Structures are given as C-alpha cells and as structure tokens.
Amino acid sequence: MLAEKRRAEIMSVSVAFIGVLMLHLVSSQNDTTQPNSNPKESPNLPPPPTTLSPTLAVPAPDTPPKEPSINSSDHIMLPTDHHSLPITLQCNLTSAHSAHKESFWMKNGEEIQETRGERANTEYYLKKPRGEDSGEYMCVYTFDQAPSANATIEIKAGPDIIGHKRSDNKNEGQKALLYCKSTGYPYPIWTWRKLDNGFYMDINNSSGRFFINNKDNYTELSIINLDIDSDPGEYQCNATNMIGTSSIVSVLRVRSYLAWLWPLLGVLAEVVILVIIIVVYEKRKKPDDIQDAGPMKTNSTNNHKDKNLRQRNTN
Amino acid sequence: MSPAPASILRDTPPDGGWGWAVVFGAFISIGFSYAFPKALTVFFKDIQLIFGASYSQIAWISSIMLAAMYAGGPISSILVNRYGSRPVVIAGGVMCGIGMVTASFGNTITHLYICVGVVGGFGLSFNLQPSVTIIGKYFQVKRPLANGLAMAGSPVFLCTLAPINQFLFNQFGWRGSFFILGALLLNCCVAGSLMRPICPKPTGGQLTQTNGTPKRPTTDRSEAQVNGHNTQLEKGCLENFNKFLDLSLFKHRGFLIYIVGNAVMFFGFFAPVVFLAPYALSHGFDEYSSAFLLSIMGFVDMFARPLTGLMANTKWIRPRIQYFFSFAIIYNGLCHLLCPLASGYGGLAAYSVFFGIAFGMVCALLFETLMDLVGPQRFSSAVGLATIIECCPVLLGPPIGGALVDTFGDYKYLYLMCGAVMVFAGLFLFVMNIYNYRMLERERRQEEGQGDESEAEETKLSHA
C-alpha cells in the first residue's frame, strides 16, 4: 500500500516536472522569437513570418470543433525617417473546421476596397508605406455556417502632424478655432501650449474660455470671446505616442474692433482734399474758361478744323 | 465748303488740354465699374463660411451687381442728358460708397444683395456711362486713343484691387474692409469732379459727326441761333440734348447693326475669362499657376488697350474702324477655337497672351465704334440702350458655358462654342458694315450735292 502511494507521488511529481519543463521550453521559444520581430534590431529586413501562431484557446477535449488558426506576420513599426521599404502583411489560414468563403483586409475597423478574395494565404502589399498607412490591420476570413475569424497586425508609427491652421485672424469678442491633424498609431495624446516669454507653457484656463476637443488623430482648440490683450500669440499643439512626438505652431491674431477706423478716415480725408483742390482750381480758372470756349478757341482750332474735315471726308 | 468761322470753330472739341484730365477721371471711373464686381470675389469664400451660404448664393452678389450696372444704363443716360456727366458721376460715387458702408453692417445675405448688389451696381452704372460719354465730348481727332486709355482702367484696377482686397480682409475682417472700400469708392467723386462740363457742338456739327443723318436746313437755323449771345450758348449746352432717351436710335441703321452684332458677341465674350482658371486646373496644374494665367491675361490686356487706341487713331484705320472692330472679334474667336489644341503650361500661357491682346482690342474699341456710328450727341442715349440690351447675353454667357461643361464634362466644347459665336458675330458685323459704309457714302454724296447748291445760294446772298 505504501509503495503504491509512493509510486503515485513520484508519477505526479515527474508529470508536473515534465509539464513545467515543457512550459518553460514553450515560453523560451516565445521569448527567443520576440527580439527578431523588433525592426529596431534589423531595420532593413521585414520580419519573416514566424511559425508560432497566436492561436486561440487550447481546445479542451469535449469542446466543439477546433477554431480556425491563422498565421499572421508580426507587428511592424515604421521608421521615423519616412523611408520605409515595402511591407507585406501576410495571413495564412492553417486550419479550419470548414472551407472558408472569403478573405479580406480591414484597416482601423473599415474594410479596405478590392481586397476580397478566396485565398487562404492572403497578403496586403504596401509599396511605399507612409505615416498615414499606420494603424490596426485585420485579415478576416468568413465562413458559411460559423462566425468569421480574424487576426490583427499593427503598423505603428510615430505621430506626424499633417494639417494645421498656420494663422488665424479674428476680431475681438469672436471665437477662434485652431486645429491639428496627424498620422500615427497608436493614436497620440494631444497637448496645447502657448508661447510665453520664450517658453511654451500650458494654457491658463482660469477665464474658462478655452475648450480642447480631441478625437483620435485630430484636435481642436477653441477660444471664445477673444481678448485682445491676453489671447494673441503662438499656440503649439503637441502629439505624443509611445513611439515618438511631434508638434507645430499656429499664430493667433486678434484685431481691434475699430482697427479699420484710421484707414477709413485717411481715405476720406484724401478724397475731400482732392475734391477741394479740383474745385478751387476750376473756380480760379472759370473766367478764362468761358472765354476759352469763345474767341480764343477760334485761333487754335483753325488747324483742327482742317484736320477734322479731312478725317470726316474719308469717313 | 466755307462755313461761317465763329460758330463751328468755337464748338470743336478741344482734343487735349483739360481733356487728358478728363481721360484720367474716366480711367478711374471705368476702372472701378468693371473691376469692382470681379475684385469682390476675393471676399466670397470667407463670407460664405461666415453666413453659412452656398457658393451659388454668394456668387449672386456679383451677378446682381453686374446686372444692376448694365440695367442702370438707360437711367444714367437720361440723367446725363438732363444734367451732364459730372453730377451723375459724383452721385454714382456717393451711392457706391453708401452701399458698401451699409453692407458692412449686414447680417444676412439679402442685406448684401441689396446694398452691394443693387445700390452698388446702380452707383457703378452712374459711373460708367457718363465717363464714356464725356470722352466723346472732349475728343474728336484723338478719340480712339482717349477711349483706349480710359478703358485701360479696367485691367489696371483689377490687378490692384484684388491684392488690396486680400490685404484689407486679412487686416480688418470683411466688415472693416467693406467700410474702407466704401471710402475708396468715393474716389469716383474725385474722378467726377474732374469732368468739367463742356459745351458741345450745335446741330451744325452734327452733319459731319453722325455721318449724314440730319438734314442741311437745320444747320442754317442753329447757326442763326448761335450767332447770338454767349449766355444763350451756355443754356444751349443742355437744351441741345434730348431731354429724355433718344428712342429714335432704334431706327438708326448703324445702331441696330451694332446692337445685334454685340448682343451675339457677348454670349461668348466673358465665359472664357471665367473658365480659364478651372480649365487650367482640369489639366492638372496647381491653383497658383492657374491664377497666374489670369494675371498674364490681365497684364497683357493693360497694354493692349492703349496700343489698340493708338492704332485705331492712325489715318489708315480710323476711317475703317468698324472693320478693325470686326477683325478684333474674329481674332478673339479664332483664339478660342485654337485653345483646345494648346497642350502643356506653355501652350496655355501663349493662349493667355493672345487672348489678353484680343480681349483688350475688343474692349478698347467697344465704345469707340458706337461713338463713330452714332455721334457724340446721341451717344449717351445709345450707350444706355446698348448696355441694357447687352445685359442679357453678358449674364447668361458664363452660366450657359458652365452648363456645357457640366453636360459634356470637357472644356473643349465651351471654347468651341465661344469661338464659333465670336467668329459669327465678327463676320456679321463685317458684312453689315460693308453695307452700312456703302449706304453712308451714298447718302453723303447726295447731301454734298444738295449742300453745294445751298452754299452757292448763301454766298450769293452774303455777297449781295
């Protein structure tokens, strides 16, 4: 009896030991493959698709048929110098309970046009990957009688601000809107700062007139009831994600409500002065003018008369 | 012919002296009239955002302004006939100024339509007609040159107003800009004050001016009148005009030819200008290059107008100025017909240069030919009637062109249509003017025959 018990103990310990060993082996294989997929160490080679598949749950013996397993390429990080070699995202449906119907790719939750096909080994090719190509890509396989299966590949990139308002001119009391748009994945965290004495300081919203609205790759700074003393200046929007950071400056100018008054008065003065000059000049010449139309003209128009007659005859 | 010395000589136009100051005043007035509606488009994009209106609603402002400018022709003609050029131009300047200033307080599109479109447009029409009219009173021998110089105001002002408008908008916002533009328009009053009234020739001069329409007997009567006092002559300045619009012009052969030819021509005249930039954009050039084509055209236009005036003044062309006008229109049409063959930016730039020359030639001769046909006496009524009749094709031309572009999806057909219309109008004017010149020769010979007889009688009487 005791010997049997001892044998059972030894068996369970050894099973446990082997199990731990195997687990260790498995996890060390995982670890050894991780560094290869980091482009920082091998920047010029696209990572080879690994044989390790991020399979879904290990099936228990009495569960329904095995879930489809997909081999997909690893996550990619785009280099910051924007000179990236072509990228191919690959997905291979290695095992499934039934034949799949279709396969296609999605980016950030929306289907990419013209990627639908029937292949099990589907690829998505990016010839010149740029910042805007970053995002979360999914290859999706649809089945007739079962839910679709997918795998996710992330193309990460640092933020790069692609759109902003270079300057904005508004009147006192109006509302100003500054915005920034960027590419990059994961979506950045936005911060707005204002140039103050040579440094960019966080915006002081004690007056409650500043509103910041962030959405994924877009941010808006709106300032209501513009104040001509404190609001004009340079505003910087800053986008930061785990890979990098980028920022750009917009200039806000506030016009005084009556700024146009001085030029208006200037032009009015000019008009009045010119009219006065012309009228005075005319009044001083007026006595001569009436004579001008009279005898004096007869002397000078003698020649004109002949010329005119010649002209008119040929008409 | 040896007419009595004092009367006719007294009333020949000065052809110089203060006339050049008047040309300068007309330059300013005409410049504002033609360039202002076009230069306003600089504000449209931003006004569209501020008022939340669609682009076509905003574009109506310019259209209403142009329509009011052309439709106000007869009214300004009547006023010029009654009061002379100077008061009308000054009133026009004040109207424009008030229109723009009140527009700057507006909050709705309708407010802009009325203030800028209607009031501003009528103000500009009170500037345009009298300016053109008074040139005819001050110049006879050098009239084509004076006309060419005055009409050059349009491209010069367009080239300067557009950047000024942009600068004003950036500095002061649209309300401040409208205020300042209203004050700038008051410079038309300065131009108007330059237009000193001048006593026109009495009906004796009309025989030679209007190419033979009035009859000889009236000369005797007016000569008798004029041989009287100086004060009577001053009153005669205004009473010599028709008090109202001279509708008998519709029986005038030359005027009818002019009206029909020009009405057809205007259908295809402005559309190519409007669509030059979009055409270049559709070829794949960027916005600045496309806008630069318009600048090239405007720059060439600036010089083409005075040069055309100079050419038209020469003794070879002046007698046949109607043919020169027809030639200019046909040349314009040919430019448009050849435009679709232009490839690349160089081709389009060359087209812009030739188009600029053609456009300038036609514009410089536009009013000169009317004056030549109708004579300075009846010109003010003629120009009013002509502009209101031309109002229709001027306003319909670009939208029809736009519809053509939308239907066929290709600008080629627009240019073919415009070219064909212009060539047809030019040929029509050419042929009809051959006929007109012949009829005028015949009438003049008849009158000279009569005139020699009655002069022989006069000399007999005076010697007796």
UniProtKB/TrEMBL annotation, chain A:
GO terms for biological process: axon guidance; dendrite self-avoidance; homophilic cell adhesion via plasma membrane adhesion molecules. The chain crosses the membrane at residues 257-281. SUPFAM superfamilies: Immunoglobulin. The keyword Glycoprotein applies. One of its GO terms (molecular function) is cell-cell adhesion mediator activity. Its main location: membrane. One of its GO terms (cellular component) is axon. Residues 29-79, 289-315 are annotated as: Disordered. Residues 1-28 form the signal peptide. It is found in: Cell membrane. Keywords: Cell membrane, Disulfide bond, Glycoprotein, Immunoglobulin domain, Membrane, Signal, Transmembrane, Transmembrane helix. This is Ig-like domain-containing protein. It comes from Oncorhynchus tshawytscha (Chinook salmon).
UniProtKB/TrEMBL annotation, chain B:
It catalyses: 4-methyl-2-oxopentanoate(out) + H(+)(out) = 4-methyl-2-oxopentanoate(in) + H(+)(in); 3-methyl-2-oxobutanoate(out) + H(+)(out) = 3-methyl-2-oxobutanoate(in) + H(+)(in). It is found in: Basolateral cell membrane. The keyword DNA-binding does not apply. The keyword Transport applies. It is a multi-pass membrane protein. The chain crosses the membrane at residues 18-37, 57-80, 87-105, 111-128, 149-168, 174-194, 255-279, 291-311, 323-343, 349-367, 379-401, 413-435. GO terms for cellular component: basolateral plasma membrane. Pfam families: MFS_1. It comes from the Eukaryota. Signal peptide: none annotated. GO terms for molecular function: monocarboxylic acid transmembrane transporter activity; symporter activity. Keywords: Cell membrane, Membrane, Symport, Transmembrane, Transmembrane helix, Transport. Residues 19-437 form the Major facilitator superfamily (MFS) profile domain. InterPro entries: MCT (IPR004743), MFS (IPR011701), MFS_dom (IPR020846), MFS_trans_sf (IPR036259), Proton-linked_MCT (IPR050327). Residues 205-226 are annotated as: Disordered. Belongs to the major facilitator superfamily. Monocarboxylate porter (TC 2.A.1.13) family. This is Major facilitator superfamily (MFS) profile domain-containing protein. It comes from Oncorhynchus tshawytscha.
